[in-house]
């Protein structure tokens, strides 16, 4: 597919890599053993499912329960790119003809002021998330 516009300039770095787990404690303990430190822990649905963010150096992992782990190569669910304006990036992606996986920008109450994000599909059906951590 040829894109009439680029999304270059709508993100500045990788934000995180996301993966589901069946055992949050074991997964957190494993990555803690590799040197990752927990940065955030949030309830995702008021039914006991959680999401944990862990960081080492410049790499952040998003690990969550409720979707089931793949338990094979391909266990990574998505790559998230950091954007300072999810709404503008969404419009640019839509205008450029990218395969949007979301009909609109999504909102969640993570961190102090929430996040805004949307997902596109890559050429191999990989999910690429554009995520904005909302500032005050």
UniProtKB/TrEMBL annotation:
Domain VOC: 13-133
Pfam family name, one: Glyoxalase
GO molecular function: dioxygenase activity
SUPFAM superfamilies: Glyoxalase/Bleomycin resistance protein/Dihydroxybiphenyl dioxygenase (SSF54593)
InterPro entries: Glyas_Bleomycin-R_OHBP_Dase, Glyas_Fos-R_dOase_dom, VOC_core
Keywords: Dioxygenase, Oxidoreductase
The protein's name: Glyoxalase bleomycin resistance protein dioxygenase
């Amino acid at each position: 597919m040829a894109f009439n516009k680029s999304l270059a300039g709508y993100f500045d770095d990788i934000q995180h890599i996301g993966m589901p787990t069946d055992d949050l404690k074991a997964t957190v303990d494993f990555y803690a053993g590799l040197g990752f430190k927990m940065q955030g822990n949030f309830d995702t649905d008021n039914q006991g499912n959680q999401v944990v963010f862990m960081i080492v150096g410049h790499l952040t992992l998003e690990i969550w329960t409720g979707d089931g782990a793949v338990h094979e190569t391909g266990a990574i669910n998505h790559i998230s790119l950091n954007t300072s304006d999810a709404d503008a990036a969404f419009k640019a992606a839509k205008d450029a003809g990218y395969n949007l996986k979301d009909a609109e920008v999504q909102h969640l109450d993570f961190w102090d002021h929430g996040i805004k994000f949307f997902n596109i599909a890559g050429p191999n059906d990989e999910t690429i998330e554009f995520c904005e951590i909302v500032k005050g």
